[in-house]
Each structure stands twice: as structure tokens, then as C-alpha cells.
Specification:
Order of helices and strands of chain B: HHHHHHHHHHHHHHHHHH
Strand content of chain A: under 5%
Largest sheet of chain A: 3 strands, antiparallel
Largest sheet of chain B: none
Shape of chain A: elongated
CATH superfamily of the largest domain in chain A: Clc chloride channel
Distance between the termini of chain B: 102 Å
Structural class of chain B: mainly alpha
Number of helices of chain B: 18
CATH class of the largest domain in chain A: Mainly Alpha
Radius of gyration of chain A: 30 Å
Strand content of chain B: under 5%
Number of helices of chain A: 24
Radius of gyration of chain B: 36 Å
Number of domains of chain A: 3
Oligomer: heterodimer
Largest interface: A-B, 43 and 38 residues
Shape of chain B: elongated
Strand order of the largest sheet of chain A: 1-6-5
Low-confidence stretches of chain A: 1-19, 591-595
Distance between the termini of chain A: 37 Å
Low-confidence stretches of chain B: 1-10, 312-317
Mean pLDDT of chain A: 84
CATH topology of the largest domain in chain A: Clc chloride channel
Helix content of chain A: 55-70%
Mean pLDDT of chain B: 82
Chain lengths: 595, 391
């Protein structure tokens, strides 16, 4: 197993002399040999999942306990506490964030991503502790934030701490944070597939087979732990849903448009207010969460207690037709307002649950309106609310794949996959066209960080080998050609180097000078194949990224580009000159990739 | 806390994993203990609110009960009993959508459960949704009940019957009633209830049968006697009706409805010329009386309607423009001289012809001038139940 220079080798046994080796030491060597680095990391992922799951269980209990202790069981009976509790909790959280746990503001997704790309996987353990305490107080006291993003960061922080204690290699240590993040998120959502997809879409930013296994294992093990302790009940009761008629897709597309616009409003509000509040004098940051709590308390007191906290019970009620479409629309608007206030004030908490809340309310409202005016088109309001959750997820968090799988995973109903895909895609497209930068990227840029984004990568123009490919040379020799025949063929040609098709496969090259020298040395009756070195030229395929060519073009005069179906068919060649020329021209065009 | 990795981290992977396993087991046990304590605490609070909710229900304070049951559910969100109770109270306060949402959550977990299907059936009944009510009530009838299954199933069926009767869906109600009657224990109260339902569903034959079962068990049951009398009366079995109604009135002199029906039945029996065991002279007297009574009824009805009966065409095949009353008056006048021949032994068809005309007049005047009273009503009922009147 690879380790840092200072770290112990965990996988290999210490070599002993044969004379002094006891039988048990031999057995130990065999056991140690089983645990190579990859296997060890996979097993470690399971433990990360277990610890993250346990932490999330405690986190959820803490939120519930705080909520019931501070606000009581029913929002209707809170009275004066609606004002006082979120305000005081905000003040307490502000002191903790400013004095004890700096760096736990916000959701935690970006911090985890920054740990992966900037800090070599390092997330302080105190971040987990601080996030746990402060988010539990803020969410439990009614701030309009969700527990999922903090769970993600708690998982990542625990994993990072574990990795450091085990002195893993830097490469593995970097991966610990996303593995822990997946576990934390999966435990919070009770949905392992969505968590894995989200971590790949938003945290890691690229598909990597190397880490996928670990992420899946940690997510699954954390979900098992959560279900063991808290049961397999979904976060809300799923209504009976069905996709009845294809015409309804029009209605779902409308929902996608509305959701996309709402997502943009939501993101722009946060993007506008957050830097301005952060720019205020430092002492005001002690008050901002308290004022936010007061405002949210006012919203709750004057008729909308549903906006407090994560709001899963209100989502549940929306999905079961307990609100009219007007109430649902108002709740969606108030939740955007309350979450924006809470989030920009610096209170630690996530945006997943609020996004789901807004989506569910908007979905129900749109469903209600459509049901009213086009009763033959619309399904149940519950179905619209369920689809609406994914719509906001896709539009606001810009995680289209996660959004689809999340709805399917949460509902356990694949009948609505077509409406979900349609609505989410429309929402994503609308949101992207109105606001190019996704919310998480916007937040990191506001914090002065530039982190990679899978969305940007998806949209990048990728240079491929075919873009820098030169036409195949006019003269192509083969391994069975005799040297004297080859000399005759190349006479009159302007080429300096000729590709040679080797038998039974592969390519080589020979220069004009070498062929002529071989003839002078009296080797005219030898075949080229018998004289050329057995080491073939590396070959490329036209569709490979151009970066791949960089590994070879400086070592050989040219690299053959061959057909994938027939490697003996030369489609062209790339040389260092052609590759750099292409990169140079792209840089002149201002390609994002090169920039 | 500053850890010293060199001391805490063992040098080999199995040892590391062993330590992690140990740590996981300890953490698992600790979190398990914490969760159990938390849940126990929450459940205790939930039980307190639930008990308070039940007390509110008993006191008739349903809105407070809703709040208490909601609070109980906040502490114990998956408790089916709390959800069921909250759903029931919400239903009783008319918040049917909310009620249904809670009840459906329970139903999804125990779709075969009798109580939850009964509760959902009641919601559907409150909504007036026939299909849903039938589905849930049938689920309740054939579902699983924890205790006293027969009584609960019977109660569910009775509620379904009441709903169907309210919806005036007689055929469905009669089907359910037949099933109910077949499974009733020998309890007079239950048979009496079933008989009343049969009567309400206009199935007087089965109603009479159920009442007679009650009477066989309890000869002096006034309600059963009154019901049997009325059922027999509706079936046109006036002698049986008279007998039962007489017993009912004897048992309960305040039963004015039975007394009225008894008078009507007695009048019918005294008026009907077709009853058995009367002499020819008496039969002829009754026919003659009925004939003149019908004539009076015809005249009074014609006056009310403003129809002139004078100088009618004597031809039976009167012109089509004549009113039915005029035609009947003409026939009545034409038949009047023949009454003297009733005493003659050879005129065996005449009584039937006279009585046919009488009953036609009664039916036509009832259609034109409304329900008659007294002897006219008796004659009308005789016309409707001519074959069974003497039973």
C-alpha cells in the first residue's frame, strides 16, 4: 500500500528473516497480503458509511429534540415562541460560528468540494462537531434550512479525520471526503442512489470508476445504519401517483417552466444578498442570524408556520391535498424568502430540503391550477407535488440526474419517470438559460474559490485527436516490403518518414535515410519487418481526447491514428507540431477548456 | 483534541480494521442506547397527548382532540393508532381530505385491517362516494379484526347498509341485507334492526320474515308486531296485518301509527267483497256499497277537476275527446240499473264486472284527484292487492 513518506505501510507485512519467522508470522503475512490498498480502501468505505450513518442518526435526533424542546410539538400552539426561539437561536449560532467554529457557515457542499480540490481532502474534525451543534440548533429552532447538506459535510469531515488518522496516501485522503459526503447525504435522504449521483455530479465533478465503488459502499452502509435505527419510512408519505395520459406531459412541461423560473429567482436572491451581507461590518454578523430568525418567526406567526425548519411535514401535507393551490403558491414564495434570509445570514444549514419544499408547493399549486382549468389533463395534486420536488432540485441545485433518481427513489414509483424527466429537463434548461452559473459555483466564486464543475465540463468543447489529425501519408509501407522495393517506391516522394504497417498488427515507421542506408549495406533482399525493431509505434483513435496524444507525440516523429474497427487502416497521423498548433488555435479562440 | 497517530494507528491493515470494527460496535451500541431512550421518551410524551386526545373526544371537544392527536403523532410519527384516531376525528370534524390522508397512511401499511377500512369507508360515506364506500366497507367486512370480529364485521355491514339506504340504492342495500340476515345470531334486537332495514329498502317480504323471527323468539315484542303488521299491510296481506297490528296496539296503546294502519286494514277487510268466509248476501251488499261509494268519489273528483259529468254518451266506446272521468261516469250510470240483478243466481259475472268498474274508478280518481281516505282508500288498496288482500 502506498503511504506518505512518513507513514507506516498498512498493507504489507514487515519482512522478517526466514530463520526467525514464526508460523503465526507467516499467517499474518498471508492475511496482510490480502489487503492491498484498493481492497483496504473499499473496506474502509464501509466503516466510513457506518460512522457517518451513526452521526446522521444522532444529528436527526438532535434536530428533533431541539425542535420539540424549543418550539413544542405543534406550530399552532407556539405563540410568542415563534418570535423568540429562532431569534435567540440565531444569536447563539452566530456566536458559535464566529468564535468557536469558523468555516461552518452555509451548506457544506462547497466546503467538501474545496477539501477535495484545494486542501488535499482535509476537513477539520471540529467542522463536523460545529456543524452538528450549530445546524441542529438553527434547524431545530425553525430557521428555514435543511439537514441534508450539513449531514453531507459531517460525513465528509468524519471520513477526512479517519483518513488522516490512518495516514492514508494523499491520493486516497483526497477521496475520503467525497466518500464520507456520499455516506452523510445518503443517510440524511435515506436514498443511496441519489446521494451517490449527487456526490459525483456536484462534489467530485467527474465520473471516476476508481472511486465509484467506495462511494456506493459508503452510501449503502450509511443507509443501512439509518434504517436500522430510524426505520425505513420515507421522509414523507408518498401519495398514490400515476401517469395516466401522454397529454399530461404538457402540464408537466409547464410545471418545469414554472419551477425553472422559481429556481432562478431563488438562486438570484441568494446570489445577490449573500455577498452584500457578508460585506457588512463584522459585528453585524453576530446579529444577522438572529434578525433572520425574527423575520422567519414573523412569517410563521402571521400564518405560515410551515416554512420553519426543513418542512417535511408540510411537504407531506401538500402531497396529500391538504392545501389549496393558492396556499401552496404562497407557501412556495414564503419558503424562498425564508430560506434566502436564513442562508444569507450565515446560519449553518442546507438548501436541499428547502428546494424540495418549494418544489413540492409549486408542483401542488401548478397541479391545482391545471386541475381546475383543465381537469381532463391533470393528475392528482400529490403527483404534481412529487414531480415538483425534482423540478426545483434540477433547476436550483442543477443536478439533473440526481433530481430524477431522487424522485424515483423517494417515491419508489417508476410510473412517473417520464413526467419527472420531462419536467426536470425543462426546468434545468430554463434555469440554465436564465442563470448560467449554478448556485454552488456561484457561492464558491463569491468565496474566492474556483472549483471544477461537472456542468461546465459537460458544456465544454473537448478537443479530440481527429481535430489535430493530419491526412495519412501518400506512401505507406508494409512489413513484407523488401528494402530495395521500398527504396524504389519512395523515390520521387517528398516524405521524410514513412509509416510501416506491421504484421500481424501494429505500426512502425522508417526514415528515408534509414531505408537508403539499408540498401547500401546490402540488405536489399531483406523485408522491412525483419529489420525494424519489434517495438511498435503507439496508436491513437480519432475520438480520443487530444490530451491523450500529448503523452506520445514528443517521443516519436508521428503517431498513427487508426480505425477502431480495423487497426491496419490508417486514418491519419498526429505529430507534436499538429497537436500544439491545434491547442494554440483554440487558445486564440478563447476556449473555456484552454482558459 | 490532539491525537498521536503513531500510537493509535496499528501498523497492519487487519489490526486497523479490527480497531475500526470495535469502534463501530461500541458506537453502534451507544447510538442504539441513545435512540432507544429518545424514542421511549418521545413515545411517552406521545401517549400523554393521545390520552388527552381521547379524553377530548369523550368530552366532545373534537378540535382540541385534533390538536392533541397531532401532537401525539409529532412524538411518534409512525404510530398507526394515533393516525387512525386523528383520521377519525378529522373525519368527524368534516376535514375529510386530511382525514383520508392520515387514514390512507395507515391503510398502506395494513390494507387488510378491518378498523382502518371501516374508518376509510366512513370517510367515503361522508363524501357520498358510493364506489369507495363499497370498496372500503367490504374490505372491513372481510378484513382482519383483532377481537370480536363477528360483531365488528356486522357493524361495518350495518353502516354500509345505512349508507346505501341513505343513497336510496335499494338493490345494493337488499343484497347486503340478505347477507346480514343470513349471518345474524338469534338476537331479537339484531333481527328487529335487520327487519327495519328491509322495510326501509322496500323489501317487505324479507322484512316480514325477519319480524316474524323476532316474534317467534319474543311473542310480545310490540316493535316486531308493529313492524310485521306494517310489512304485511304493505304486501297487501291485510288479515295478517290486522292481526299483528292489533297485537302491537294492545302491547303499546301509544303506537298511533300502528293504530292508524290497523284501522285502515280493518276497513279494508270490512269493505272487501272478495274476502273468504262471507255469505253471498254480504258480498252483494259490499259490492253495492262499493259501487255507490265509487260513484260519490267520481262525482266529487269531477267537481274538483271541473269536469262535467252530465249527459254523457251512453255508448261505452265514447269519443276520444271525452275525459276518463266522463267515460267512467257513463259506464257507472249504465251499470247502475244492473245492480238489482246481483241477487239473481244466474248473474255470476256481474259482481266481477261491477267491482272492476269500482276499482277502475278508484284508481282513476286517485290519479286525478290524489290519495283518497276512508272506504275509498280501502277500495284503492284492495284494487292494488286484489289477490293477496285476504291473506
Amino acid at each position: 500500500m502506498k503511504t506518505d513518506a512518513s507513514g507506516p505501510d498498512l498493507a504489507k507485512s514487515t519482512p522478517d528473516s526466514a530463520a526467525g519467522r514464526a508460523p503465526w508470522q507467516g499467517l499474518r503475512a498471508v492475511i496482510d497480503g490480502i489487503f492491498d490498498e484498493e481492497r483496504f480502501f473499499l473496506i474502509l468505505s464501509v466503516f466510513i458509511g457506518v460512522f457517518a450513518g451513526l452521526a446522521v442518526v444522532c444529528f436527526r435526533l438532535a434536530i428533533d429534540w431541539t425542535h420539540l424542546a424549543l418550539l413544542g410539538p405543534l406550530p399552532q400552539t407556539h405563540g410568542w415562541r415563534l418570535f423568540v426561539v429562532p431569534c435567540l437561536a440565531g444569536l447563539v449560532v452566530a456566536v458559535l460560528v464566529m468564535q468557536v467554529f469558523p468555516g461552518i457557515r452555509g451548506s457544506g457542499v462547497n466546503q467538501t468540494k474545496a477539501a477535495l480540490y484545494i486542501f488535499n481532502g482535509y476537513i477539520p474534525f471540529r467542522t463536523a462537531v460545529g456543524k452538528f451543534i450549530c445546524a441542529a440548533i438553527a434547524i431545530g429552532a425553525g430557521h428555514s434550512l435543511g439537514p441534508e447538506d450539513p449531514s453531507l459535510q459531517i460525513g465528509a469531515s468524519l471520513a477526512s479525520a479517519l483518513g488522516r488518522q490512518l495516514r492514508l496516501s494523499r491520493e486516497k485522503l483526497r477521496l475520503m471526503a467525497p466518500v464520507g459526503a456520499a455516506a452523510g447525504l445518503a443517510a440524511a435522504f435515506n436514498a443511496p442512489i441519489s446521494a451517490v449521483l449527487f456526490v459525483i455530479e456536484e462534489v467530485i465533478g467527474r465520473w471516476s470508476a476508481g472511486i465509484l465503488g467506495s462511494v456506493v459502499l459508503s452510501a449503502v452502509s450509511s443507509v443501512v445504519i439509518v434504517r436500522w435505527f430510524l426505520g425505513g419510512e420515507p421522509l414523507f408519505r408518498i401519495p398514490v401517483t400515476a401517469f395516466r395520459r401522454p397529454e399530461e406531459l404538457i402540464a408537466y412541461a409547464v410545471l418545469g417552466i414554472v419551477g425553472g423560473v422559481a429556481a432562478v429567482v431563488f438562486a438570484k436572491a441568494i446570489g445577490y444578498l449573500r455577498p452584500r451581507l457578508k460585506a457588512l461590518p463584522r459585528w453585524t454578523q453576530y446579529l444577522q442570524p438572529g434578525i433572520a430568525g425574527l423575520l422567519i418567526g414573523m412569517i410563521a406567526y402571521f400564518g405560515a408556520p410551515q416554512v420553519m425548519g426543513a418542512g417535511y411535514s408540510a411537504m407531506d401535507e401538500a402531497m396529500h391535498g391538504q392545501y389549496t393551490w393558492k396556499v401552496l403558491a404562497v407557501l412556495a414564495g414564503l419558503k424562498i424568502l425564508a430560506t434566502t434570509i436564513s442562508f444569507v445570514s450565515g446560519a449553518p444549514g442546507g438548501m436541499f430540503a428547502p428546494a424540495l419544499f418549494v418544489g413540492a408547493m409549486l408542483g401542488g399549486a401548478v397541479g391545482g391550477v391545471e386541475h381546475r382549468f383543465f381537469p381532463h389533463l391533470a393528475g392528482s395534486n400529490g403527483t404534481y407535488a412529487l414531480v415538483g420536488m425534482g423540478v426545483l432540485f434540477a433547476g436550483f441545485l442543477r443536478a439533473p440526474m440526481t433530481s430524477v433518481f431522487m424522485v424515483l427513489e423517494v417515491s419508489g414509483n417508476y410510473e412517473i419517470i417520464v413526467p419527472v424527466i420531462v419536467a426536470n429537463t425543462v426546468s434545468y434548461v430554463v434555469s440554465r438559460s436564465l442563470q448560467f452559473i449554478p448556485i454552488f459555483d456561484l457561492l464558491t466564486r463569491q468565496d474566492g474559490l474556483v472549483l471544477p464543475s461537472l456542468e461546465e465540463e459537460r458544456e465544454e468543447t473537448i478537443l479530440r485527436v481527429e481535430d489535430a489529425m493530419l491526412p495519412a501519408p501518400a506512401i505507406i509501407l508494409t512489413a513484407s516490403d523488401y528494402v530495395d522495393a521500398a527504396v524504389r517506391r519512395i523515390q520521387g516522394s517528398g516524405q521524410a518518414i514513412f509509416p510501416v504497417r506491421m504484421q500481424p498488427s501494429g505500426w512502425s515507421s522508417i526514415s528515408r535515410d534509414l531505408v537508403e542506408r539499408l540498401l547500401k549495406e546490402g540488405k536489399g533482399e531483406y523485408t522491412l519487418g525483419s529489420l525494424l525493431p519489434t517495438q511498435n509505434l503507439p496508436c491513437l483513435y480519432p475520438d480520443l481526447p487530444l490530451d491523450t496524444a500529448l503523452r506520445y507525440v514528443n517521443k516519436v516523429p508521428f503517431v498513427p491514428v487508426v480505425n477502431r474497427a480495423n487497426s491496419q487502416e490508417l486514418e491519419g497521423i498526429v505529430s507534436s507540431e499538429s497537436v500544439f498548433k491545434k491547442y494554440h488555435s483554440e487558445a486564440g479562440n478563447g476556449s473555456p477548456q484552454v482558459a | 483534541m490532539q491525537w498521536t497517530p503513531a500510537k493509535l494507528v496499528p501498523r497492519s491493515a487487519p489490526a486497523v480494521l479490527g480497531v475500526l470494527l470495535l469502534l463501530a460496535i461500541v458506537s453502534f451500541a451507544a447510538v442504539g442506547h441513545l435512540v432507544n431512550r429518545f424514542n421511549a421518551n418521545q413515545q411517552a410524551r406521545g401517549r400523554r397527548f393521545y390520552a388527552q386526545g381521547l379524553a377530548d373526544v369523550s368530552a366532545g371537544n373534537l378540535s382540541a382532540a385534533v390538536e392533541d392527536f397531532r401532537a401525539a403523532l409529532t412524538y411518534d410519527p409512525t404510530n398507526s393508532q394515533y393516525q387512525l384516531s386523528l383520521g377519525r376525528v378529522l373525519r368527524d370534524t368534516g376535514r375529510l381530505d386530511e382525514a383520508e390522508a392520515y387514514l390512507l397512511a395507515v391503510w398502506e401499511r395494513t390494507p387488510q385491517g378491518g378498523p382502518i377500512n371501516l374508518a376509510l369507508g366512513r370517510v367515503a360515506a361522508r363524501r357520498g362516494s358510493l364506489d369507495d364506500a363499497l370498496r372500503y366497507y367490504h374490505n372491513a367486512i372481510y378484513g382482519v379484526w383483532g377481537s370480536d370480529a363477528d360483531a365488528n364485521r356486522r357493524r361495518a355491514r350495518i353502516e354500509l347498509i345505512e349508507f346505501l339506504l341513505q343513497k336510496r340504492d335499494w338493490s345494493e342495500a337488499q343484497s347486503e341485507l340478505v347477507a346480514l340476515a343470513a349471518s345474524l345470531p338469534p338476537d331479537p334486537a339484531l333481527h328487529l334492526q335487520a327487519a327495519a332495514f328491509f322495510a326501509q329498502a322496500q323489501d317487505y317480504r324479507n322484512a316480514l320474515s325477519e319480524y316474524e323471527q323476532v316474534i317467534r323468539i319474543d311473542h310480545s315484542n310490540s316493535a316486531a308486531l308493529a313492524g310485521a303488521g306494517e310489512a304485511a299491510y304493505r304486501l297487501g296481506r291485510f288479515r295478517s296485518a290486522s292481526r299483528n297490528l292489533q297485537s302491537a296496539v294492545n302491547g303499546n296503546p301509544q303506537d298511533s301509527k300502528s293504530r292508524q294502519l290497523l284501522q285502515s286494514a280493518s276497513l279494508i277487510l270490512q269493505t272487501d267483497p272478495f274476502v273468504r268466509r262471507i255469505s253471498d248476501a254480504e258480498r252483494n251488499r259490499r259490492i253495492t256499497a262499493a259501487f255507490f261509494k265509487a260513484g260519490d268519489r267520481l262525482k266529487s273528483c269531477a267537481q274538483v277537476k271541473g269536469t262535467g259529468l252530465g249527459e254523457p254518451a251512453t255508448d261505452a266506446a265514447a269519443s276520444p275527446s271525452q275525459s276518463p272521468l266522463t267515460t267512467l261516469a257513463a259506464r257507472w250510470s249504465a251499470m247502475k240499473p244492473d245492480l238489482r240483478r246481483l241477487r239473481s243466481q244466474g248473474e255470476s259475472d256481474l259482481p266481477d264486472a261491477v267491482l272492476d268498474l269500482v276499482l277502475q274508478i278508484e284508481q282513476e280518481t286517485a290519479a286525478e284527484c290524489g290519495q283518497p281516505e276512508g272506504v275509498d282508500l280501502a277500495l284503492l288498496l284492495i284494487s292494488r292487492n286484489r289477490e293477496v288482500a285476504d291473506q
